[in-house]
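Cytochrome oxidase assembly
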Amino acid sequence: MGVFPARKFRPTSQNNTPAARYRAALARHPFMLFGLPFIATMVLGSFFLTPATAIRYERYDRKVRQLTEEEKLGIGKDKRRIDLNEEYYKLAAKDLDNWEQKRVKRLPGEHDGIL
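Predicted structure tokens:
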């Protein structure tokens, strides 16, 4: 009984095709045909996507930064100073025991909530 060869039989007409040459090169240099293109794609993609990311953050900065320096300086000038004791005494002076419940007038066609 004969021993089967370890390699598959390929006719000589298939040895010169691009697929056969690629298969042979892949067997000898797998990193050059798979790893190097993958790494090159990742590195070049990061360089090409950097400007797009920068544009995104520049648009966000323009949207957030709307006040000029003069407006920033005048923001807190007209505020009333809050004193906690004064606010406490204002609430304590109100009569919270005598109040009346008033119904809000509904818009036309709006359900009034009564079933």
